[in-house]
Amino acid sequence: MSTDSDTDPYRVAEMSWQEIEAALERTSTLLLPVGSTEQHGHHLPLGVDVFMPEAIGERVAERSPALLAPPIWYGVSPHHTFKPGTFTVSTETFQRYVFGVCASAADWGIETVLLLNGHYLAQDPELEIVVRKLQEETDLTAFHVPLVNLFADVAAEIRTGEVSFHASEFETSIMLELFPELVDMDRAESVEPGDESLPLTDYDALGENKVGWALTAEDMAELTPTGNVGDPTVATEAKGETLVEAAVSNICLLVDEIEQRN
């Protein structure tokens, strides 16, 4: 339970129900980190896609009125099962689970939910559907917040690697800023994808990904021996600080406007 007398508690898992009841007097917005537990190369831990949105959500809740829910650790990751440690669930199970978590929060007073998606790109379709169902079937206002969209502009300005698709420049930089003790840069290796990507389907988080497509575990095994795609060796803590601040600032902008209108 939070003991900092200068800061209102915001981490739901550490609060009592009485503290939640009091917190609902100042905010009705919930930040829900949603990620997956999956391989991230030789140099990053399996929990990257949860560590990032949870830490970013924490920084948002320190600056803007919102509660921070316990994260969702398991996502839709069948394409990463070619390496041990990856967990995956079906699209249907994932959607029902996330919907249920959000709907239950509405029962005790939450009016707006932001799904902070750390497993961006791969998990975007599922969360877009969840948001639509929440809007149609509950009283909640819901938003899908893929982190890459929030920092894309600054990422394009500061990047030095040509490809950053998975566990590479962007994710590694963010982890160096947030959890440097979990990053082993001595084991980071650059893996450049081949030329088999079709037009509009670049292997890059900021690439020409204009059409929907997906990779299988077999595709990934052929694409990368290490698990990452792109060059994590060019990642730096300074880049991560810039990316994180862009994400936090943008989420705060949305949260503050939501709260002003409520």
Rg over CA atoms, rounded to whole Å, is: 18 Å
The strand line-up of the biggest sheet is 2-1-3-4
Number of strands: 6
Number of discrete domains: 1
SSE series:
HEHEHEHEHEHHEH
The residue fraction in helices comes out at 40-55%
Shape: globular
* SS-based class: alpha/beta
What is the overall number of helices? 8
Question: What are the low-pLDDT stretches, counting only 5+ consecutive residues below 50?
Answer: 1-5
Mean pLDDT: 95
Largest sheet: 4 strands, parallel
- N-C termini distance: 27 Å
CATH topology value: Rossmann fold
CATH class term: Alpha Beta
CATH homologous superfamily grouping: Creatininase
CATH architecture group name: 3-Layer(aba) Sandwich
Proportion in β-strands: 5-15%
What does this structure look like?
The chain is an alpha/beta fold and 262 residues long. It has a single domain (12-261), classed as 3-Layer(aba) Sandwich (Rossmann fold), CATH 3.40.50. Helix content is 41%, strand content 10%. The chain is built from 8 helices and 6 strands. It has helices at residues 17-23, 48-63, 91-107, 124-137, 147-158, 169-178, 217-223, 237-261; strands at 29-34, 67-68, 112-117, 141-146, 164-166, 229-230. The strands form 2 sheets. The protein has a 4-stranded parallel β-sheet, with helices on both faces. Strand 3, helix 4 and strand 4 form a beta-alpha-beta unit. The longest helix has 25 residues, at 237-261. The protein is globular and about 55 Å long. The model is unreliable at 1-5 (pLDDT under 50).
